[in-house]
Amino acid sequence: MKKPLEGVRVLDLTRVLAGPFCTMMLLDLGAEVIKVENPNGGDDSRAFGPFQNGKSAYFLTINRGKKSISLNLKTQEGKQLLRDLVKHCDVICENYTPGTMEKLGLGYDDLRVINPRIIYAAMSGFGHSGPDMNKPAYDILVQAMGGVMSITGWPGSAPTRVGVSMGDISAALFGAIGLTTALYQREKTGVGQKVDVAMLDCQAAMLENALARFQVEKAVPQPLGSRHPSISPFQAYKASDGYLIIAAGNDNLWSKLCTALNCTPLISDARFQTNAQRTSNVIEVETELNAILDQKTVAQWMDILNNAGVPCSPVNGMDAVLQHPQLNARNMFVDVTDPAFPGMKVPGNPIKMSCLAEELSRDKAPDIGEHNSEVLRDLLGMSNAQIAALKALGVM
Amino acid sequence: MKKPLEGVRVLDLTRVLAGPFCTMMLLDLGAEVIKVENPNGGDDSRAFGPFQNGKSAYFLTINRGKKSISLNLKTQEGKQLLRDLVKHCDVICENYTPGTMEKLGLGYDDLRVINPRIIYAAMSGFGHSGPDMNKPAYDILVQAMGGVMSITGWPGSAPTRVGVSMGDISAALFGAIGLTTALYQREKTGVGQKVDVAMLDCQAAMLENALARFQVEKAVPQPLGSRHPSISPFQAYKASDGYLIIAAGNDNLWSKLCTALNCTPLISDARFQTNAQRTSNVIEVETELNAILDQKTVAQWMDILNNAGVPCSPVNGMDAVLQHPQLNARNMFVDVTDPAFPGMKVPGNPIKMSCLAEELSRDKAPDIGEHNSEVLRDLLGMSNAQIAALKALGVM
Description:
Two copies of one chain form a homodimer. With 396 residues, chain A is of the alpha/beta class. Helices cover 39% and strands 15% of the residues of chain A. Chain A folds into two domains: 9-205 and 326-392, Crotonobetainyl-coa:carnitine coa-transferase, domain 1 (Rossmann fold, 3-Layer(aba) Sandwich); 234-317, formyl-coa transferase, domain 3, CATH 3.30.1540.10.
């Protein structure tokens, strides 16, 4: 069985997170990913902790299984090699500040002449158009600028960053949709195209009902802690030894919850009969439930609520996540064959496809230029002597 | 110019968020989306606020531009109509609890017999395998269960939900990648496949360095407020009238920042010379910067820092987001032609492709069954009398 993207070759000039996360997904779907790194240090994230045996676990997580060639794109020879490689690739991916590739003579308009079938995907902070296009962006900036931070956290508290880099990762995901769609369209038309995804745009695309609420209600939505703006109970509550989440927004689940908590009078309490009433009186719901939940531990309540069919969860830390039976049954943590990281698990592929066999391990992340000889020999027919000469010149 | 997914017809059985968000993206890339709704009330989110002129703005935001047919899938005639429609579609999308479609006799194994080219995408809470597969899930549950909530919020505070439904939306994004990849593979093989995406899996896939930090450092990562675990300054700071974000993680930006704030002695301060030192002494960095930033307003500092080339942002609420010049230059808020919502803006398409012209408006969201006649006539050749008979029988 062939993998869905088998035969798709990706030339990957990306660094740190949005770009590398995107090409990692393409790799998991079967593409060959050739990372192009500067010979002096390579991808910046090789210098990001945590480290083990001198290697970055951060870099490993996002780059396992890729190939690496080193190329100094400031040299004429380096640029020429990149152009030669583009002829043999389907996709080129970059996440430089817009204008960088054009200045190198390697923008989409340069490369499409060399290979009209090339799909050029750019993931940048602000995109390749508009007044801010040339500014750099970082995850926390787009979380703040795009509105997500204004509705995350606690009323009156300092702003709260989403603990994962959703600014970068959402751009990686939207970028991958654009890339795979461009591959599909190329099957129809025979030509490639440019895909331009901005981290800031992606934040705005994910605001869902907050944007509508503001326009209809004319009040700027505020952060709500763990609460949902229009569903209750649907938040964190406090047991005797910590917090648990209960999501029981409809009347049937509210009834099941009250029965399980042995507080059936609340079912017919005039303040709590509908979701709308419970949401209007959300503080009273919280007070009533916390008073009961305080009598047992999170683990005890999880047993009781699960048996009663009430959706609930502890707030799992990384230790519990790695042990989670459902995530492990779905192969969401896979081994990585890197001697520097014995026993290390990395996230697996969440896109399960019936034409894609599950793989229970990933190859290690490459060293800088580890695949120079293989790639230049196989794709460009170069000899070891030619490759050694390029290395001596500082091109690789 | 044809749109990338022009000619792709999607039969959309999804409700509320993850599924409808996925098919909305396919629509923006050119697919025809036919929403299949139960005749009694339709998509649950039609009942979710905010409302305007009796219609849900929540539903509008995610379903603009789709068609709707009403179909009672509990009737034999309704099931048969769905099977007939599947013959004329490329993609079927559903987000029921696993097992629901199979019980109706409409699971992938039933439908592939009718149309081997069909691509069947399921987005569920826990996926179509594993011990928890039959449980329902909600956004806040997978945020808590999958670990994101454990690293979002403030040390010692109650758990904090990410203010957008990233549990649903990330499943929509990974699902769309799977769908478009399956469309590409079908061009090679001629056959469809099943795509199975779980909200919980997607949360685990997005944990990036937290999972690696836990395994290397053996300590469970904790929430950090607005801070980044390994970059400083990279957080919210307090000006005289509110908060602003400064992202100046490398030494060059640190130097620019200190110059702009007129505190150049901090550049060579032994506690702050490298990013590693600044991260170790992050509280002192915060104390020093807050003391200076407290002397001017957010707007004043934005001018100063932007002029100095220091990446910064206010924490934009929905009002500022909707007015943002860069987002508007990128057409990220588009009009929707629904008389119930005059002047309403909905998020546009963040996937900019050179073979996809920008569209500055979207059609309205459909009423339940608004396209019954059109779809049944055009795809199945049915007469108005036949359609009226089905309606009289309660099938539509």
